[in-house]
Amino acid sequence: MKSSTGEHYPALDHIRGLAAFLVFTWHFLHESPQGPVPYGFVPALPIFSFLDEGHTGVSLFMALSGYLFAKLLDGKQINYLPFFANRALRLLPLLLAVICIEACRRYWAGQSLEEYFTGVGKGVLLPTLSNGGWSITVEAHFYLLLPFLLMASRRFVFAPLLFIAAAIVLRSVLYVQIGEMQSAASLTIIGHVDQFLAGILAFHLRAHAKNRHWLALAVLIAFSGFFWWFDAAGGFYQLGRYPSPHWIWIILPTLEAAAYSFGIAYYDTSFSRKRTGLPFKILEKAGAYSYSIYLLHLFFIMQLAAFIDANVMSISNFYVACLWSALCFLATIPIGYLSYTCIEAPFLRLRLRYVDDKPETAEPIVSGIRSVVAIADTPNIVHPSLSQTSISPGSRLSQAK
């Protein structure tokens, strides 16, 4: 994970790679309610519920975004026009390519393009972009909020907690008014803002996560147990119905935010040696190309699973299907590399430097086209884009960083 400032964080690429694998496997397993692995299946080991409910990988991506931007911008002055331009150069080229490819696919299939391009136009504000593009809309909304979130964090390190509390209240009010919260919680900034905020807070409190191995294990056990319960209760698609009227969607984003932000801070600070083993190298590469993997995999993942199930061997067994998913994920990394090299990298070379290492002044400066906001350096106190994704009913996970 290398920014326009030249900073590179391989450990955070590992997390991006893991998030991409969660989303990839979720789509591989659940082509339809019947299979290859039925929605109703519940793994015996709670830890595997993260794969069976792999849409949670989107929440991991977004917590990582909050953490990484707090890390990149800590103690620096930020010129926000170049910052927004860089984010556009990072996200738009591949997103536009995917929009065009999907339009061609629909045209060749004899489908109407009017409705599709109407959805593309609405995608600036609503979760209507296909192939995971809806999550890029959520990420863009986060970027617009970022200057204010950083300013608030600079003034009061626990400000993100206040915003998270406000988000829970908002979801509660909307739940009472609408009768369900799954749609907004899984597909919009109303739900995912918790993860961005928790990532920012986790960076400032990262010293408290360092080397807390037993606490990390306890969080993993507790959160996997919760997700096992969520999976057994029906999960994303069968918790009553879709969208689910269950109240758990009011706090699910917060629980994901707390667990993932702590895990990111723990992993980033607790292992000083560079992780050079083959699994880490694979995760690093997958993380580096995760945006391409994320946006492109829905073009083929379900057909690939169906082909294996029909022509190679049955993958109705959850654990067998997960092994096949891992093999297919490895085979997808070269596709991500080609996409990154041909579509993403040329535009990344156009990025501008948007930070100044000069110490911040007492107050943030906002004038004309330049907004300067810096985070105070508080030692004791999230990027993907590839950013399911959560899932839209039409594309199973129109889906990271």
Structural summary, described in words:
The structure is a single chain. By secondary structure, this protein is mostly helical. It has one domain (10-372). The protein has 16 helices and 4 strands. It has helices at residues 10-29, 49-52, 56-73, 80-108, 113-122, 133-155, 159-178, 182-187, 189-204, 213-232, 235-238, 248-270, 278-288, 290-296, 301-311, 318-348, and strands at 77-78, 355-356, 365-367, 370-372. The strands form 2 sheets. The chain has a two-stranded antiparallel ribbon. Helix 1 packs antiparallel against helix 3 (56-73), helix 4 packs antiparallel against helix 6 (133-155) and helix 10 packs antiparallel against helix 12 (248-270).
Number of strands: 4
Given as residue ranges, the uncertain stretches (5+ residues, pLDDT < 50) are 361-401
Approximate strand percentage:
under 5%
> What profile does the largest beta sheet have?
2 strands, antiparallel
Average pLDDT value?
A: 87
Number of domains: 1
Question: What string, H for helix and E for strand, traces the elements in order?
Answer: HHHEHHHHHHHHHHHHHEEE
- Radius of gyration from the alpha-carbon trace, in angstroms: 20 Å
Count of DSSP H/I helices:
16
Strand order of the largest sheet: 1-2
Helix-and-strand structural type: mainly alpha
Instruction: Name the overall outline.
Output: globular
Taking the alpha carbons of the first and last residues, their distance comes to 10 Å
> How helical, in percent, are the residues?
55-70%
